[in-house]
Amino acid sequence: MFTSQALSTLAIAMLSMAPAVQSHMILASPKPFGTPDNSPLDPSGSNYPCKMTSATAGEGPMNDFKVGSTQQLSFSGSAVHGGGSCQISVTTDKNPTKDSVFKVIHSIEGGCPGVGGPATFDFKVPDALPDGELVMAWTWFNHIGNREMYMNCANIQVSGGASDNSKFEKLPDMAIANIGVGKGASCKTAE
Q1: Percent of the chain residues topping a pLDDT of 90
Q2: How far apart are CA 110 and CA 108, in angstroms?
Q3: 0.90 cut: is pTM over it?
Q4: Where in the sequence is the signal peptide annotated (predicted)?
Q5: Does the pLDDT value for residue 94 go beyond 60?
Q6: 90 contacts: CB under 8 Å, gap ≥ 6
């Protein structure tokens, strides 16, 4: 028969061997392309944007984005790192590269992707987006933990949008930080 002290010691030992069950966040909706993982972008920026590989762009479902419609941003995973700030951005490049320009269509300052667990956020598709097949990016700068940048991307089909890029080009550029690419090479977020 075990004593209560022996049981406590055994319980502590078993808990210390248990694997961590928390995982970083992954974009769930809009449905991302490729095989997204929950890791941050490499600090060198080698997998920016979208953790692209030569076969990633265009893989996966097409998300319908009718101008004026309300879309939902949601996540899977559990390690929200105290929240943070997120942006939803779009590029007109069907196969984004390090030189692609992502324009912000919605920002969430604080509490994203959640605080006690993943949350959902609604956003409207602006009329500044041109019609056609575009790529949407979700980016996240975590509040607590290592200074990282997370990014998943999705194919979107915009309808009811602008016939040219003039409004789109006036949107603000996506924030880039904590990675060795462009402005991200010199910009670091604070915990």
Answers
A1: 59
A2: 6
A3: no
A4: 1-23
A5: yes
A6: 102, 103, 105, 129, 134, 135, 136, 137, 156, 168
User: Rounded distance, CA 129 to CA 82, Å?
Assistant: 32
Confidence of residue 181 (pLDDT cuts 50, 70, 90): confident
CA–CA distance, 125 with 39 (Å, rounded to integer): 27
Q: Give per-residue pLDDT as tens, 3-58.
A: 444 434 433 333 333 333 446 788 999 999 877 788 899 999 999 999 876 556 66
Q: Which helix (H) or strand (E) holds 142?
A: strand 132-142
Which token pair is 180? 């060795």
Q: Which residues of 157-190 are buried (b: 16+ CB within 10 A; e: fewer)?
A: ebeebbeeeeebeebeebbbbbbebeebeeeeee
